[in-house]
Design brief:
Blueprint (H helix, E strand, L loop, with lengths): L1 H12 L3 H5 L8 E3 L4 E3 L1 H9 L8 E3 H34 L24 H10 L2 E8 L9 E6 L5 E5 L4 E5 L6 E5 L6 E4 L5 E5 L4 E6 L4 E6 L6 E3 L4 E4 L5 E4 L5 E5 L8 E3 L5 E4 L5 E6 L4 E6 L3 E9 L5 E7 L17 E4 L6 E5 L11 E4 L4 E6 L4 E7 H4 L2
Antiparallel strand pairs: 1-2, 1-3, 4-27, 5-6, 6-7, 7-8, 9-10, 10-11, 11-12, 13-14, 14-15, 15-16, 17-18, 18-19, 19-20, 21-22, 22-23, 23-24, 25-26, 26-27
Length: 398
């Protein structure tokens, strides 16, 4: 409810948020769909001039107001679906026989998420992880400069990418020799790959998620819902719906669970513990939640502000790229400049270090993905004009 009120206040007062932060009352004429703030004409020009935000999609306040009105109708429908699902589950539970007491006990909602680990061993393990340059994939040229917003690896080793500046999805052999592209009906924000290699792509500005058959290069389903990041579980699609929280959806498009207190606006990924992890571009936090138990754990990414691409390996280590804090001495900063590093964060969030830097060839990264099967770390470099593949050193030695 608080998130909705904030949006209503922005629309009602037409307030420019950057100016408001400086105690100025300036009318907002535009809305950045990725920063989630209103902008006056001067701040809009500055926003477009910064390297980090020049490719963000900005719409008029009138268009944003119309979008919110449409979203409110969608939320009402979702609430009806959730209520219906809860009633079905209640009936099902009442008709279920008591479980065998010898079976494994299901954790209760009051049980804490287990983030415990031996910190000394964890730190030593982090320090031992090293990556070595493996290969570069040069992206197929588009009408505009490519901005790879997200990327994944399919079961056949093909790399799949979404280009937010040319509204397309690309697939490439890992050697980068053969590439295909498929035009999308809107600007893609995030990409999720199902176990059968079906792609789900969020089109935030269009207020929908599309399901794509990558091999046939065709859209076979559209779901009306506004979201940012998204990720598949074996049975469901989890959506990061910004101000309205994390939502879980079945394959029919019916929403069955909502965690409204988790209001991220970035990427989603599944951790090694099975929990859903969410980052927020508007803060330096990563949030972990269990959709079924509605439990939430938050930890801070100490050296990064406004995290962008985020991924996790099979041991629970998080890899992230974002804007470096201006107060940090790791990287010199010129205004709002993207980092030239990939950060590694322990599963508890207590430890972090730089795992790849400019010396390794990292330059203005946007998206990142860890391929657990092949132990490769893929980095969308130069805001996505190329994809650099790094491989764990111990893999080279085998």
């Amino acid at each position: 409810m608080a998130g909705k009120q904030i949006i209503r206040n922005v629309i009602k007062r037409h307030k420019c948020q950057p100016c408001a932060d400086q105690k100025k009352k300036i009318v907002a004429t535009a809305w950045c769909t990725e920063c989630q703030v209103g902008l006056c004409s001067n701040c809009h020009k500055h926003h477009d001039s910064l390297k980090l935000t020049r490719y963000h999609h900005v719409i008029s306040m009138r268009a944003f107001q119309a979008k919110i009105t449409t979203g409110q109708l969608t939320q009402k429908m979702e609430k009806m679906q959730i209520k219906e699902h809860q009633q079905k589950q209640k009936i099902k539970k009442n008709n279920t026989q008591p479980e065998d007491p010898t079976t494994e006990k299901t954790p209760s909602e009051s049980d804490p998420i287990d983030f415990s680990s031996n910190d000394i061993d964890m730190k030593a393990k982090m320090d031992s992880v090293k990556f070595k340059y493996f290969r570069t994939i040069e992206i197929l040229k588009g009408d505009k400069t490519s901005v790879i917003k997200d990327l994944k690896v399919l079961s056949n080793e093909h790399v799949v990418m979404i280009d937010g500046n040319n509204n397309r999805i690309l697939s490439s052999e890992i050697e980068g020799i053969k590439q295909n592209e498929f035009r999308l009906p809107g600007k893609p924000y995030c990409l999720a790959i199902a176990p059968d290699d079906t792609a789900a792509i969020s089109l935030y500005d269009n207020g929908k998620v599309i399901m794509v058959d990558i091999f046939k290069r065709q859209i076979f389903r559209e779901i009306v819902i506004t979201c940012f990041g998204l990720v598949f579980t074996p049975e469901h699609l989890i959506l990061n719906c910004g101000k309205t929280g994390i939502k879980a959806m079945d394959m029919n498009g019916d929403v069955y669970a909502v965690i409204p207190e988790v209001r991220g606006d970035g990427y989603l990924f599944i951790g090694h513990d099975g929990h859903v992890y969410c980052n927020s571009c508007g803060s330096n936090q990563i949030i972990s939640c269990n959709i079924r138990r509605r439990l939430v754990k938050t930890f801070t990414t100490l050296s990064i502000e406004h995290p962008l691409g985020t991924t996790v390996d099979d041991e629970g280590f998080v890899y992230e790229v974002g804007v470096q804090s201006p107060s940090s001495s790791i990287i010199s900063h010129e205004g709002s400049k993207a980092s030239e590093s990939i950060h590694m964060i322990s599963p508890t969030g207590r430890h972090h270090r730089l795992v790849l830097t400019k010396q390794d060839g990292v330059n203005n990264p946007y998206a990142v993905f860890y391929d657990n099967e092949r132990k490769n770390l893929l980095v969308a470099n130069n805001f996505g004009e190329s994809v650099v593949i790094y491989r764990k050193e111990d893999v080279f030695q085998k």
